[in-house]
Amino acid sequence: MAIDIFPVSNPREKHQFIRLPWKIYRGNPYWVPPLLIDQKKMFSRKHCPFFEHSEVEFFLARRDDKILGRIAAIKNNNHLKVYNDGVGFFGFFETVNDQEIAHALLNRAGEWLKVRGLKAIRGPENYSQNETAGLLIDAFDKPPVIEMTYNPPYYVELIESAGFRERMKLFAYAIEGANEIPERLAQVVESIRQNADFIVRQVNMKRVDEEVEKIKSVYNAAWSENWGAVPFTDNEIKKLKGDLISIVIPDLCFIAEINGEAVGTSITVPDFNEVLIKLKNGRLLPIGIFKLLWYRRKISGVRTIIMGVKKEQRHKGIDIVFYYETFKNGLRLGFHKGEMSWILENNIPMRQALDKIYGTRIYKTYCLYEKDL
After folding, report:
1. CATH superfamily, region 4-169
2. CA-CA distances (angstroms) from residue 258 to 140, 201, 221, 357?
3. What pLDDT does 182 receive?
4. Least crowded by CB within 10 Å, which of 128, 186, 190, 318?
5. What is the pLDDT of residues 248-296, one digit of tens each?
6. Residue 167 to residues 15, 122, 176, 360, 366: CA-CA distances in angstroms?
């Protein structure tokens, strides 16, 4: 039967869009189901701040009265303001292993973007690089950590066979089985601190709004030269604060300052995916909340989700001090593995810094793909 690609236009279809991954990943032990309450907010034009400045259309694929795929076509106006490159995006791509359906979804997203004057389509980005992004292209036998993507291996072939080419790789670095601070790291930090004109301190949760503003100023400055990066809006940073406030541990979150000015930041959070993977239906009620409270005490890993230093201060070793303080406090708190992700393949300074830490290695690779329209 023919494939019908149609836009989501009512609550029932939105529910089908949200719930499709449970069909795609049924029986996959590595997939981590998202919380349904978070998904409803993410796809709400009323509650998600991305819709304040950009356009999105959600599509479903139907054949023989069965929903078999989904995709979002994304016109990120903030990206276009920064780069003026005519690039649109696709995201939230999920499909059964069927080339015809995958190509129909990708083509429909491309058509939607082309009508709006865009020249290329890139993805997956859900909605931008400030959220989750990248297609996993290896390490399919490992579950994702918090706020990282996961997909079946066959997505690679489906996207590449539709004419997409690799545009940029994103790397995830890992430390596993850590029991002590690497001696090399401790020695380097001691040397850096002998002549340092900066301080590294923990985030003060009693002044969280003020601290978030400092983190935002560093993020938007430090990432301004990163390929594909766009600045956070005020409401996007407010949403991020709301998402993280209940899970952050101040001992793992730092700000670097020179004469009171924030010049760097590092935010590491517990890997709550170790808990969510136990909640297969994505619901906290009726018993999910009890599982969450029980398993959160057993979390063994962390993810560094933000680390950056303003350009003019990058030669001072601030990032190395961030690694050291995170390593030290993480071990004290009982965490013995961590992921630093994601890092652009062309971010050589950051990758070189990670190479200096004993036991750090690239263990997952993601990819952003692009195709001319």
Report:
1. Gcn5-related N-acetyltransferase (GNAT) (3.40.630.30)
2. 43, 11, 16, 25
3. 81
4. 190
5. 889 999 999 999 999 999 999 999 899 888 776 655 545 455 455 555 6
6. 32, 8, 29, 25, 11
